[in-house]
Amino acid sequence: MEDVLQLKEQLKEKDRELAILKNKLAQLEKFSASNCFPTDLQDKITVLAPLTPKTSLTNEDIMRFSRQLLLPELGVKGQLGLSKTSVLVVGCGGLGCPLAQYLAAAGIGRLGLLDYDEVELSNLHRQVLHSELTQGQPKSQSAAQAIRRLNSTVQCIPYHLQLSPDNALQLIQQYPSNLSNQ
Predict the structure, then answer these.
(1) Which of 16, 39, 87, 104 minimizes the number of CB atoms within 10 Å of its CB?
(2) Whole-number average pLDDT of the chain
């Protein structure tokens, strides 16, 4: 009889675990249905089209970047330069997350996010673009989702790859900075 009681208790615990997992799945499906989870994760390198340069700032751009437009070192010309700049961030962890976040917030034109790892609970306290809802996802995809929520005008390209001697040149050549042309 004692064995039966232990088995019933184990079954109750498994039912609780299953309920938690079902709840988590429902949340993920809800976000997926609202297009928060992009499906354009790159597992290979494809040739990117050049960025279309902006010739002027929209009213929304002026409102969004008003504080940095006031800086004499940046101004409208510098903001337009940022919008035609591409950056490849290698690693979407403790350093890559804030770098990507600030580049996107500043108005960079294209942001490549390269990481081969997946989001784990132990990442969340220091890798600020990831969340509990993105656990198990590739870090590059999780970071891209957060970037798109921050600034939807940034072209964000997540790569679920590891940088290697075989792909480094091909990847890096796709992200010319254009900052030297200012």
Answers:
(1) 39
(2) 86
Print the domain residue range for 14.
1-34
CATH number at residue 76: 3.40.50.720
In terms of domains, do 27 and 76 share one?
Answer: no
Q: How confident is the model at residue 103 (pLDDT cuts 50, 70, 90)?
A: very high
Q: What is the pTM of this model?
A: 0.73
pLDDT in tens, 71-100: 999 999 999 999 999 999 999 999 999 999
